[in-house]
């Protein structure tokens, strides 16, 4: 053979497709949508979420309406206009508890462990759960306000804008307390225990506040607790917006207390969640 055969050219390595993980905002948006779809696919939950506001309005708005005749009650204010902003806030409180219950359920059924096998940030799972429950709570609160206006004559002096402001205050409270209950959920890991702990926490906060009667009509020791109760700040702000008597100090106290709660609960919830 007179010529040396040329060696075949080396085959270039196959190029792998470049892949980058999704952003945190994308992860939160996708997981929030998943939680909302899972919720509203069950018609029973949708129906119950509409019945619950009606039951609360009948129980508190009608059964306790005689409180409007008690000395010290704000003059010229119907009891439904007094109680509904408080019901919006207390409903936001119970919606925050549901955030924790949902986390314990997903920890138990193996959904969150599957999320951990994916390139998903830990905080995205909890943030998505928080936003989904706030949106769900907002629909329930809106239904409550509409039912109160149609069936019980709810027409506060603050008008529609005041009611919208009250809804926003309740949503902020739901968001901040949702992180507290998710923190407890990551620690307790049991929906039954969390429901018990949540009831022990929510009932004193609800009834030892200015939700159902003016603070001035409470006994001295209970009045002292209601004065420092963070729920009272949110109720005062929501009621002030609905009745057109809110000021910046009232709104600042409500939003500030919710932010303080969130700043404490968020890192604790994330740390406890990562350990599970």
From TrEMBL:
It is a multi-pass membrane protein. Its main location: membrane. Residues 44-276 form the ABC transmembrane type-2 domain. The chain crosses the membrane at residues 45-70, 82-105, 126-154, 160-181, 193-213, 248-270. It is found in: Cell membrane. The keyword NADP does not apply. InterPro entries: ABC2_TM (IPR013525), ABC2_TM_bact-type (IPR047817), ABC_2_transport (IPR000412), T7SS_ABC-Transporter (IPR051328). Belongs to the ABC-2 integral membrane protein family. This is Transport permease protein. The lineage of its organism: Bacteria, Bacillati, Actinomycetota, Actinomycetes, Pseudonocardiales.
């Amino acid at each position: 053979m007179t010529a040396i055969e040329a060696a075949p050219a080396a085959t270039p390595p196959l190029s792998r497709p470049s892949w980058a993980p999704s952003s945190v905002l994308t992860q939160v948006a996708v997981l929030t949508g998943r939680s909302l779809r899972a919720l509203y696919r069950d018609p029973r939950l949708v129906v119950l979420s509409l019945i619950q506001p009606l039951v609360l309005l009948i129980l508190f708005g009608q059964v306790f309406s005689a409180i409007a005749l008690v000395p010290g009650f704000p003059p010229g204010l119907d009891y439904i206009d007094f109680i509904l902003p408080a019901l919006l806030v207390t409903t936001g409180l119970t919606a925050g508890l549901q955030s924790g219950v949902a986390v314990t359920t997903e920890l138990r059924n193996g959904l969150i462990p599957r999320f951990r096998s994916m390139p998903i940030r830990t905080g995205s799972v909890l943030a998505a759960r928080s936003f989904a429950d706030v949106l769900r709570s907002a629909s329930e609160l809106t239904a409550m306000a509409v039912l109160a206006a149609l069936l019980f004559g709810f027409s506060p002096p603050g008008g529609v804008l005041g009611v919208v402001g009250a809804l926003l205050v309740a949503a902020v409270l739901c968001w901040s307390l949702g992180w507290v209950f998710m923190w407890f959920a990551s620690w307790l890991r049991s929906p039954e225990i969390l429901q018990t702990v949540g009831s022990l926490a929510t009932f004193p906060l609800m009834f030892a506040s200015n939700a159902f009667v003016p603070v001035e009509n409470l006994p001295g020791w209970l009045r002292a607790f209601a004065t420092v109760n963070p729920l009272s700040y949110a109720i005062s702000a929501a009621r002030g917006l609905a009745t057109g008597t809110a000021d910046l100090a009232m709104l600042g106290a409500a939003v500030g207390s919710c932010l303080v709660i969130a700043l404490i609960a968020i890192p604790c919830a994330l740390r406890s969640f990562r350990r599970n």
